[in-house]
Amino acid sequence: MTPGSFDQESIQAAKLLNRRAVLLIGKNAPPKNLSESIIAVNYAPYSQVFPHACAIVHQGGIGTTAQALCLL
What we know:
By secondary structure, this protein is of the alpha+beta class. The chain has one domain. The protein contains three helices and two strands; from the N terminus they run H-E-E-H-H. A two-stranded parallel sheet has the order 1-2. The radius of gyration is 12 Å and the shape is globular. The termini are far apart.
């Protein structure tokens, strides 16, 4: 519910790696320093996003972990 520095660190990592990123921010305010290759949305279905991802960084919840593992 409270991302702390997670969003900012994720943005920095995506920029350093020159990768696109989708930040799922829930009801939080969108980060201010997004680039053209980074979007922040309240919700996106994992089943549509994960198959296109080269990496998935998340909070470690069982549901998200299960969906990520289904891609293997």
